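Retro notes (design track)

What went well: tokenization of the new backbones is finally stable.
What didn't: we kept losing track of which sequence belonged to which structure.
Fix going forward: every design gets posted as structure first, then sequence, in one message. First example under the new rule, 135 residues:
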């Protein structure tokens, strides 16, 4: 696990806001952005992409993971998630599972109670599913 500085986390937090501005969220008006930092120091942005067939909507966190995988990076160490200001916005259950797949120790930043919360992925999804033998 690489050590992350407060400056890096602040930068990631700001990049998530930039990503939020790209959201395709005309149906709900609920725009979300995500910025994913990998251990090779590359950052991948994601935003929610809604669809008129609502069930096909993609969350910001998962779109950032898809960008990371498509670009050939593989070890995320932190993700910042930004929804509308003054609204609690933690990753949904599906995104928690997807983040868990790529690094249970990933630091997850999101807004809650007017604060920026920083927790490990495994804290967000206790007893999360993993298709592998226990160490
Ligand atoms: Zn989600």
């Amino acid at each position: 696990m690489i050590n992350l500085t407060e400056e890096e986390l602040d930068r990631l937090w700001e990049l998530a806001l930039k990503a939020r501005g790209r959201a395709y969220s005309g149906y709900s008006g609920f725009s979300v952005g995500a910025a994913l930092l990998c251990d090779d120091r590359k950052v991948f942005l994601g935003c929610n992409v809604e669809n008129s067939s609502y069930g096909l909507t993609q969350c910001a966190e998962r779109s950032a993971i898809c960008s990371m995988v498509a670009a050939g990076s593989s070890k995320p160490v932190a993700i910042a998630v930004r929804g509308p200001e003054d609204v609690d916005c933690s990753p949904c259950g599906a995104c928690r599972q997807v983040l868990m797949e790529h690094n249970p120790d990933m630091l997850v930043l999101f807004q809650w109670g007017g604060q920026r919360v920083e927790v490990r992925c495994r804290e967000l999804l206790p007893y999360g599913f993993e298709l592998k033998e226990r160490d």
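Added context from the reviewer: The beta strands are 33-38, 43-47, 76-82, 107-112, 115-120.
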